[in-house]
Write a structure and sequence with these properties.
Helix content: 55-70%
Distance between the termini: 152 Å
Bound molecules: ligand C2E, calcium ion
Number of domains: 3
CATH architecture of the largest domain: Alpha-Beta Barrel
Keywords: Membrane, Transmembrane, Transmembrane helix
Number of strands: 23
Shape: rod-shaped
Structural class: alpha/beta
CATH topology of the largest domain: TIM Barrel
Protein name: EAL domain-containing protein
Pfam family, one: EAL
Length: 687
């Protein structure tokens, strides 16, 4: 027997190559799993080549490490054939682990195929030495080497398959697996070598013509490392690219989520918006239909928000809304919904144990919002009106429930603000009436259905000094309508502009008649709504009306509410300045209900302050109101403004107001609003 020996350096290198090749193969298997389409084939092909060269060169370097006391060489054709077998079986193995699933039988088949492939490569490589008289193999070790090849292949396939997904520490785990695989491949090789017996007198048939030893070793190592290196590099770069793509797509997903959040929530308060609310109502309807139970839909509208917004500006208004949102949210359970669906409109969606619980909840919310708010250093007071629709009962769909809760809210507002109403079927009739009213209002002006009533104004001495023109609508079916039934509607639809022009014209016409009757010192007062005041044509309309009826401007008083005058301070000043420049008399109506700044009041070119009738009403009972009225009087005197008290109903009030120093009085006690034709007769009757 010839005794072989091993070069330890080359053995070590063969081990390294085996481990590196295994690592590359595992890495490529990972790429295959995440790739799609034709790149999969590319990865399998390239991976097969790299892995095949790796395994084969491990084997070959192992052969080179081995020497016998005779010269050795390798037949080129057979050697190349063994390389091809290595590549094919590697490619097959990679294709196998790139499957979606790897059932046991398939793993077994793969292990057998790959194990056989590696063994074929090994023993064909041995055969390439063309030993004469031939190599004898120890059957036990030979069998063991086959078993190792199959087992190692099975383990390798299984690991490669499990490692396909990029799990945490994947590189570390892959390194460990590559170590195991590398050792197994090397183990197979050296077991196979140990099985080989070279009888004495053997000689190597390939030695004279085949590949020689020395230069081959270097070449093979270099080429192998280059191929494996390139494969590994490509794989790593591609993984980078892919993880960048993954990052991009995850940030895209996040942006998408933020967009959805934006689309479903109100920007200011972060509460759900109408879209999300409607969806939640729909879901709750479904839930109640399946499991029973009740829920309430509460439509909540703030009272007194607009004046705050007008007086302090949008920024403060926004802060207030946020505070309101926070209070509402904090008072509810997390499964309840508070949504903001309009400027100062909120909707509460609450599951109830008993329908009666809605009462407690609604009054809770109302008293919650009635507490003063501290916003940006200001103490602000607002209130809320709530309309409640219950499910089941008050509507079958989310639209109907919302509509009915809205109708109930309007009802609550109509009943005096700061309260709640449950929906009743009759409210729907109201809504229909409302629509009809709007329809009629559009036609009213052309049909000449408006009339003015005049309420006299008196000096403190009791002498009449003019009248306030108050609009009435002679409705063909409903009779004489008061302004509170249609002014808000006219404002919302813009109809107030032509109607207001008509009032101006008609009041001037009437005043002209009185003027000609010798009442030259009288003034007629006309109310302006906020929308008219903002309208560009106001100053021209006033001038045209005065001109048309040849009326001195001092005979016309324009009444604007405090809130309107304070709304957009600079543009208000400009318009008021032009009107005052024409000589028109200006009055600040409902004074005391808004939030006037004293500084601003001083700059206003107004001539008169009209104390709101709310203060006059409780004058005798409420000492606060008396204090407020005397403060307003003092303020008016300081600013050189006339003070008018409206809503005087009792002689007690009359005395009080005269004593406090009001310049003029107006009220039911002294004269109710009446048509122009009765006006003069009425005055002389009371005088
Ligand atoms: P306002 O400007 O505060 O008008 C005074 C209101 O107080 C009138 O109600 C008048 O009838 C009522 N009033 C007068 N004396 C007394 C009293 O002693 N006791 C009580 N309880 N009320 C008294 P009216 O006519 O219903 O008008 C309501 C509001 O409608 C007016 O409030 C005004 O803001 C608006 N308005 C009336 N006419 C016009 C108009 O031509 N154009 C505009 N834009 N608004 C108008
Ligand atoms: Ca008025
Ligand atoms: Ca008033």
């Amino acid at each position: 027997m010839l005794v072989g020996s091993y070069d330890p350096a080359l053995v070590l290198i063969s081990l390294c190559v085996a481990i590196l090749a295994s690592y590359t193969a595992l890495d490529l298997a990972g790429r295959i799993a995440t790739a799609k389409g034709w790149p999969v084939l590319l990865w399998i092909g390239g991976g097969g080549v790299a892995m095949g060269i790796g395994v084969w060169s491990m084997h070959f370097i192992g052969m080179l490490a081995f020497s016998l006391p005779i010269p050795l060489g390798y037949d080129l054709d057979l050697t190349l054939l063994s390389l091809a077998i290595a590549m094919l079986s590697s490619g097959f193995a990679l294709a196998l682990v790139s499957q979606e699933r790897l059932p046991f039988w398939q793993l077994l088949l793969g292990a057998l195929a790959m194990g056989t492939g590696i063994s074929c490569m090994h023993y064909l490589g041995m055969y390439a030495m063309l030993m004469q008289p031939g190599i004898e193999y120890d059957p036990l070790l030979f069998g063991l080497s086959l078993l190792i090849a199959v087992l190692a292949s099975g383990a390798a396939l299984w690991i490669a398959f499990r490692l396909r997904q990029n799990t945490p520490y994947v590189r570390l785990v892959r390194g460990g697996a590559a170590l195991v695989m590398g050792v197994a491949i090397v183990g197979m090789h050296y077991t196979g070598m140990a099985a080989a017996r070279f009888p004495d007198g053997s000689f190597c048939g390939a030695a004279p013509s085949g590949l020689g030893n020395d230069w081959l070793a270097l070449l093979i190592i270099v080429v192998t490392l280059a191929v494996i290196g390139i494969a590994l590099l490509t794989s790593v770069l591609d993984a980078r690219l892919e993880s960048r793509t993954a990052l991009l797509s995850s940030s895209l997903a996040q942006a998408n989520q933020e967009l959805t959040q934006l689309a479903l929530h109100d920007n200011l308060t972060r509460l759900p918006n109408r879209v999300l609310l409607e969806d939640r109502i729909e879901q709750l309807i479904g839930k109640v239909q399946r499991n029973g139970g009740n829920f309430a839909l509460m439509f909540l509208d703030l009272d007194g928000f607009k004046p705050v917004n007008d007086a302090f500006g949008h920024h403060l208004g926004d802060l207030l809304l946020k505070e309101v949102a926070r209070r509402l949210r904090d008072n509810l359970r997390s499964e309840d919904t508070v949504a903001r669906i309009g400027g100062d409109e909120f909707v509460l969606l609450v599951e109830l144990a008993e329908p009666e619980d809605a009462v407690t909840l609604a009054s809770q919310q109302i008293s919650l919002l009635a507490q003063p708010f501290q916003v940006a250093g200001q103490e602000l007071r607002i209130a809320a009106s709530i309309g409640i629709a219950l499910y089941p009962g008050d509507g079958a769909s989310q639209q109907e429930l919302l509509r009915n809760a809205d109708a109930a809210m309007y009802h609550a507002k109509g009943n005096g603000k700061n309260g709640y109403s449950f929906f009743e079927q009759s409210m729907n009739t109201n809504a229909r009436n409302h629509l009809q009213l709007l329809h009629d209002l559009r036609a009213a002006l052309a049909r000449g259905e408006f009339v003015l009533h005049y309420q006299p104004k008196f000096a403190a001495s009791g002498e009449p000094i003019g009248a306030e023109a108050l609009l009435r609508w002679q409705h063909p079916q409903r009779g004489l309508l008061m302004p509170d039934t249609f002014i808000a509607l006219a404002e919302r639809t813009g109809l107030i502009i032509p109607i207001g022009d008509w009032v101006l014209d008609e009041a001037c016409r009437q005043m002209r008649l009185w003027y000609l009757h010798g009442r030259e010192s009288w003034r007629v007062a006309v109310n302006l709504s906020a929308l008219q005041f903002c309208h560009a044509g106001l100053v021209d309309s006033v001038a045209a009306a005065l001109e048309r009826h040849q009326l001195p401007a001092r005979c016309l008083t324009l009444e604007i509410t405090e809130t309107t005058a304070m709304r957009d301070a600079d543009s208000s000043l400009e318009i008021l300045g032009r009107l005052s420049g024409m000589g028109v008399d200006l009055s600040i109506d409902d004074f005391g209900t808004g939030y006037s700044s004293l500084l601003y009041l001083k700059r206003l070119p107004a001539n008169e302050l009209k104390i709101d009738r709310g203060f006059v009403r409780d004058l005798e009972q409420d000492s606060d109101d008396a204090a407020i009225v005397s403060a307003i009087v003092a303020l008016g005197q300081a600013l050189d403004l006339r003070i008018v008290a409206e809503g005087v109903e009792t002689s007690g009030q009359q005395d009080f107001l005269t004593r406090l120093g009001c310049d003029s009085l107006q009220g039911f006690l002294l004269g109710r609003p009446i048509p122009a034709e009765q006006f003069l007769d009425c005055l002389s009757a009371t005088a």
